[in-house]
Amino acid sequence: MKQAIVARADLGMGEGKLAAQVAHASLQAYEDADRQAQREWKGSGQKKIVLQANSESQLFELADRADKKRIPHAIVRDAGHTQLDPGTVTALAVGPAADDRVDAVTGDLSLY
Amino acid sequence: MKQAIVARADLGMGEGKLAAQVAHASLQAYEDADRQAQREWKGSGQKKIVLQANSESQLFELADRADKKRIPHAIVRDAGHTQLDPGTVTALAVGPAADDRVDAVTGDLSLY
Known about the structure:
Chain A is α+β, with helices and mostly antiparallel strands. Helices cover 43% and strands 24% of the residues of chain A.
């Protein structure tokens, strides 16, 4: 079980900003998962990996793929109080789900 | 309502690593909160801020302060598969709780 969080590297977010966006996405996708997946993932150490994308459209394509495979996922838009314009899409979390199911969506991406 | 996540700046964590640790801490403290605090925080946009600390002892002091004030919180130790030694304390999340209660614990820290 794992969760992959894909964040946009093209926005020039600071480290703390990036971390907050990743945490938003992680929590939202977690809540999109069913109770059994939540339990299994937590029981196995809630593995998270942070990956990079370079555009909004790439995040939407990945979200679409996760949606078709019925993997819990969540897209995050920034409220725009700091650094970014309101509504900017910053991150996507995929899972928790079985490793191979997550890899089928995000396996081609580089570590952030 | 907000949640403050305090991460160690002295470990030299890469951006993705930092983001994953912040996300771990965020989710664990969220689960330590009662259902009403969880709902209120999510309903108000789940505000998160990422702050910096510079030692393990500082994180434990802050956790102790949160504990005494009965604010939900969670300390994260890294499993040590990459970059860090196993068991390294990397981050602390405080809240979700009312802004002033969180500030009473983490208000003196700088943004990460």
